[in-house]
């Protein structure tokens, strides 16, 4: 029996790999599985801002055309529209710190949204090492594999 209604905070690097990585990478499979797994992405103001900024920069780095860049950003906007938005500005809960202060926004959003998962590829940030948190920290492949096992059983 599978879980219903996962709320997932995804690190920017997961979006980057899904768009610019090799075809069929774990992040691409993760995003493709969300609807099947009845999962919903969570975005805070800080996350969507960073995501749009970094993606536009990556599109420029890869010399994508204006039309291709617009398509990438439109796809993210559609994901944002379907996702859950959380306001972390007035959050009063103390959250554990990670090694990379730039990644703290993902932990804060996970707490604010009462997320079930925080998905990242960033091993250096410390997010995958978080203990005693009310959500599961995992990679895209771990999330997808875990949900595949639950659907089968």
UniProtKB/TrEMBL annotation:
This is PIN domain-containing protein. The lineage of its organism: Bacteria, Bacillati, Bacillota, Bacilli, Bacillales. Residues 7-124 form the PIN domain. It holds the Pfam family PIN_3. Coiled coil: none annotated. It comes from the Bacteria. It comes from Bacillus velezensis.
